[in-house]
Each structure stands twice: as C-alpha cells, then as structure tokens.
DNA sequence: CCTACCGATCGGTAGG
DNA sequence: CCTACCGATCGGTAGG
C-alpha cells in the first residue's frame, strides 16, 4: 500500500465524485482535470480504471467505518451497540458524509447486476457490515434484550430497509423529515424504551413468525 | 404519441437495458446494434438521448402499472387494496418483470443527485405511486382497519424501505429468502391477520408516536 | 430509415 | 510525473 499524498488525493476526490456520479461515472480524464494533472500521470498510480475503482471502494469503506462503526465502539455489545450503530448510521446520512448520500447503497444499486471485482468488493463489504449488525442482534437476544426467537437476519434485513428508505427520502425526495421517520422506524425494530420488561411484554415485531 | 412498431421495439429494448445498465448506460450505439439498425435511424425517432430516456421511463411506468397497480384493482379500497398492492409489488420483484430488478429503485439511485427532466420524471412517478399507497393507508385508518393516529407518510416510508431491502436482497445478495423476509416485514406493517379486532388489540407499529 | 461524418471523450500505451 | 498518441465509442448532424 502506497502512502503518496497525490495518490491519496486522487482516491479522496474519486470517492466524492463516485458517490454522486457513480463508480462508472468516475472517469480518468475528469478526475485528472479536477486535480490539475494529466490522465497518464493519474492512471500511473493505479494501472487501470478498475484498480482505481477498487481503491475508491476501499477508501469509502474506511470512511464508513470511521464515521459509523467507530462511533459506537464505546457502547456495550448487544442491544446498546446495535442502537448506537443504527443511530450513527442515520447521523452519517444526515451529516452527508458523502456528498451523494450513502456510498454503498449507491454502489450496490449500480453494480448489483454486473459481474467482476468491483461488484464483489461492494458485496463483500456490505456483507461484513451486515454481519456486524447480526452479531449484536444475536447478543441482544442472548442477553434477553430482544425477544427470544428473534430472527437476526430478519432484523438486519429490516434495518437495511429503513436506511435505504432514509437515503431515498433525503436524496430523491429531499425530505428533511426523513431522518425522523427513520428513527421512528428503528425505534419499532430495536426499541428505545428503557426497560427490557416493557419490550418483552408487548407483541415483538422481530420475533413474530411468518404468517405460514 | 407515435405508435410505430420500430419505435415501440426501441423503447422496449431500452427499458430492459436501462434496468440492468442504468439509464445513462443506455447508449444509442449499443441500442442500435442490439436492434440491427443505424444510430441515426434510431435517434431519428426521439431527437436526443434525453428524449429517449424519458420515453423509456414512461414505458417502465406503464409496465409497473400493469404488473403491480392493476393487479390490485379487484380489491376493496383501504387495507385490502394496500395489502394487495404490496403483495403485487413483492411478486413483481420475484417475477423479475425487469431483468435488473425494480426499474424505479435503480433509476432513483442513479438520478437522485442529478438535475434535469429525467430526474424530475423519476421523482414524479415515484411520488404518484407513494400517493396511491398513502390514499389507501388513510382509507384503512378511516375504516378502523389501521389504528387511529397512524401516520400515512410513516407507513409509506417503511413500506418503501421493505421493498428496497427486497430489491437489494435479490439483486446484490442474491438471497432467495428475501421475498419471505419482505412478506414478513410487510405483515408487521400492514398485517395479514384476518380480524381487525386482533390488530386493534395489540401494540400497533404504525400508530406508535415518535419517541419524543 | 440509410451512409458518412463531426468534435469530444473514453480507457489505455509508448516513451521519456 | 509529462507529451503525444492509439483505436473505440460517445451523442449528434448533414444530406439524402
């Protein structure tokens, strides 16, 4: 891994451009013009557009980790961590950490029907994030903070849906009320009520079995 | 509106290509080659790429209406219609009506940070669909089939999230279990239980007020 | 509907 | 890091 300043500047600019225009819309000529350098000078750092895209995806993952995952490390594993992760996730979209909204929601939509290393990288990173969430759902169930019988994959599926709806509400709908809706929906899924007993006593969304 | 067969064939092919490669990835040369005609012959039908994109978006909307909205018209307005619309929505993704998943989820993600007529068309059509859903949520509340105090916009927000999670689960995750998860999540939001009384008696997700 | 063409830009290479 | 260049493709036009 090189640590050159120029290289880092290229990748940083690439992340910003890709979050708005897409990873395919990130062209070498445009990026070179943005940074005041020649196309070949820029390409020399990476070798190919695909290699650049992969570095941009990795850099976006590092930003996501710093701006979302790392903000929750102070909380206890299980339900507190899960809530903190989701709160940080909403905040990350509210703060517009990437100028084009969630980098990975955009990249997932762009590459979900393609094949190749970029798709694999996006799928792998999102899978890691979902795994992290799932772990804390499991811990929450084990601790009795989520109802016994809760399906962790179902919770992660629904949490992802809420965040995609938030990204959509902010970017396409430009609805400033979207974060409040997302928080309200998250509250339904992983609660914010203070007592475990209160949650256990009511019909538990995540635990309810499929309708046959 | 022309009704030419060639023109219709171009648009139909354009819808399929755009659902996979994106509306920007739909190029005139590629489309012309697919259909065995010249670029200028193809472009003559529309005048510009943007005009073609707009026709493709409209054609996709017609397909969505036929494959989703129209399949629910036999049900009573209100909760039955809402449930039928959502069931048809899930089915439409399961059946892969578009080869690249939901045309409008993909188009929304692609154009949410751009300006211009294509973005406006996508935003307008999705707003119409959400309005349709909201109407039936309101009717359901008025009929007592959803709890009094239910926020229709909140329900529509969450329904959209479930469908985006389904599209993501099918396309990026390639998870055949995703439709079952979506149905289970929808069941939480708009129920499938047979009796209104049973729903009214339990904690109602859609009606719960924000956590201050 | 076609051929022929336009300038611009694409990703990438040669050679320094 | 650069200039200079490659063939391919982009959206679009002229003229028929």
TrEMBL record, chains A, B:
It comes from the Bacteria. One of its GO terms (molecular function) is DNA binding. Residues 27-46 bind DNA. Keywords: DNA-binding, Transcription, Transcription regulation. PROSITE patterns: HTH_TETR_2 (PS50977). Coiled coil: none annotated. Residues 4-64 form the HTH tetR-type domain. InterPro entries: Homeodomain-like_sf, HTH_TetR, Tet_transcr_reg_TetR-rel_C_sf, TetR_C. This is TetR family transcriptional regulator. It comes from Phytohabitans rumicis.
């Amino acid at each position: 891994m090189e640590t050159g300043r120029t290289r880092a500047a290229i990748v940083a600019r690439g992340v910003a451009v890709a979050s708005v225009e897409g990873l395919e819309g990130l062209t070498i000529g445009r990026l070179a013009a943005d940074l005041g350098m020649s196309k070949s000078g820029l390409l020399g750092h990476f070798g190919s557009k695909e290699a650049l895209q992969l570095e941009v995806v990795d850099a976006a993952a590092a930003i996501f980790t710093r701006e979302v995952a790392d903000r929750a490390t102070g909380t206890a594993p299980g339900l507190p961590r899960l809530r903190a992760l989701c709160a940080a996730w909403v905040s990350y979209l509210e703060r517009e950490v990437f100028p084009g909204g969630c980098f990975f929601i955009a990249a997932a939509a762009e590459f979900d029907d393609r094949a190749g290393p970029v798709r694999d990288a996006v799928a792998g990173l999102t899978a890691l994030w979902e795994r992290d969430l799932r772990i804390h759902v499991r811990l929450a169930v084990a601790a009795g903070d989520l109802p016994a019988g809760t399906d962790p994959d179902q919770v992660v599926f629904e949490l992802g849906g809420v965040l995609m709806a938030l990204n959509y509400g902010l970017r396409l709908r430009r609805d400033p009320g979207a974060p409040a809706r997302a928080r309200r929906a998250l509250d339904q899924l992983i609660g914010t009520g203070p007592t475990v007993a209160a949650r256990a006593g009511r019909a538990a969304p995540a635990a309810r079995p499929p309708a046959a």
